[in-house]
Amino acid sequence: MKIGFIGLGIMGESMSENIVKKHDDKVFVSDLNKAQVEKLASVGAVACENNIEVAKNADVIITMVPKSEHSKAVYTELLPYLGKGKLCIDMSTIDPDVSVEISKFVKETGADFVDAPVVKSKPAAISGTLGIYVGGTEEAFEKAKPILAYMGNNIIRMGGNGMGLVMKICHNTLVAQIQNGVNETLALAQKCGISVDDFAAAISYGGGQNFYLDGQAQNIKNRNWTTAFSLENMHKDLGICQRLSKSKGFPMPGMENAKSVYDKGVEEGIGKEDFRATYKIVEAR
Ligand SMILES: NC(=O)c1ccc[n+]([C@@H]2O[C@H](COP(=O)([O-])OP(=O)(O)OC[C@H]3O[C@@H](n4cnc5c(N)ncnc54)[C@H](O)[C@@H]3O)[C@@H](O)[C@H]2O)c1
Fold first, then answer.
1. Are residues 172 and 220 in the same domain?
2. How do residues 1-25 score in pLDDT, each as one tens digit?
């Protein structure tokens, strides 16, 4: 079975490299950034000139692009090359409603489609230990699962098309609120004279212990804002949550509060920095 991978950015680069290493057949890759395509070719992938070449060659097409508009553009471009027997797996974090729309036009060709967004970041993409939330039919899920297992070790089907993404948006909205709590209490502790190291150690002894602080305390201490997950991508996810909460008539003031920090980050031009750079926004109040 030939696999294709489109979108070789921070996450896609390592996810596709794991497929190349573990899969026993060819892996065709493309990205607008040719340097990334060359990088993957150097570890054994087949470099393609464009996305269409990937779609023509692959039985299973995986996409990992930034936003709804990118996913929609890619699948619109690929549509004439899709058909019965092909499976499309969009692992990008996009609006669930847009994903359902894409799934409909892809399925009209006879191909199948699942949304399979991922949780955790670059280190888990490298080690093949991502969490993956899948939306699609049972049949498509079973077909996708062995391929997803090259990239992740926790794989769960959440329901029909779009439901993997609904869960992913809930996940990231929770992370943003945990992060906002960490940012505020760490900034207060520092203003009172407590160091980042002492704060992180003390929090780890109690019920406030959390994955975000465990992973980010040293980076915040060292004021390292190098991007693993961009502030603008989390801003996009909170925007999707805001739209979902409005569409369900369910107010989420905690989410709105966290999103206002992200709005400020984007306004101040730090959208390309890591999402932990929200600490700078909070401490400067
Ligand atoms: N970085 C993380 O930690 C992380 C974790 C979980 C989920 N995500 C989600 O995964 C997705 C990708 O994130 P990322 O950090 O890898 O982003 P990224 O910007 O580093 O990578 C996206 C890649 O897609 C490529 N691309 C865009 N449009 C394309 C097109 N039309 N054809 C071919 N290639 C195209 C870009 O050139 C880029 O290389 C986003 O939806 C993000 O929210 C990211």
1. yes
2. 999 999 999 999 999 999 999 999 9
Distance 65 CA to ligand 1 centre (A): 4
Cα 222 from chain centre: 25
When divided into structural domains, the chain yields a total of: 2
Dihedral-angle region of residue 162 (phi above 0 means left; psi in -120 to 50 means alpha; beta otherwise): left
Q: Contact, 134 vs 90, CB < 8 A?
A: no
pLDDT of residue 122: 95
Tell me which H or E stretch contains 124: helix 122-127
What is the chain's mean pLDDT, rounded? 98
Helix (H), strand (E) at residue 280: helix 278-283
Q: Please tell me whether residues 170 and 226 are part of one structural domain.
A: yes
In this structure, are 122 and 209 located in the same domain?
no
Q: Which atom of ligand 1 is nearest to the CA of 11?
A: 16
CA distance 61 to 139: 16
Q: Is the domain of 180 the same as that of 269?
A: yes
Sequence-distant (6+) residues with CB within 8 A of 63 are 5, 6, 7, 71, 74, 75, 88, 89, 90, 91, 92
Domain extent for 9: 3-160
Q: Residues with beta carbon inside 6 Å of ligand 1?
A: 6-12, 30-33, 36, 51, 64-66, 70, 73-74, 92-93, 118, 121-122, 228-229, 233
- The residue among 160, 176, 201 that closes a domain is 160
Q: Which residue has the tokens 């909070």?
A: 282
Separation of alpha carbons 246 and 226, rounded Å:
33
Nearest CA to ligand 1 atom 5: 121
User: Which of 160, 190, 224 is the endpoint of a domain?
Assistant: 160
Could you give the CA distance from residue 259 to residue 244 in angstroms, rounded to a whole number?
A: 14
Of the pLDDT bands very low, low, confident and very high (cuts 50, 70, 90), residue 61 is: very high
Angle between helix 163-191 and helix 211-221 axes, rounded to 10 deg = 50
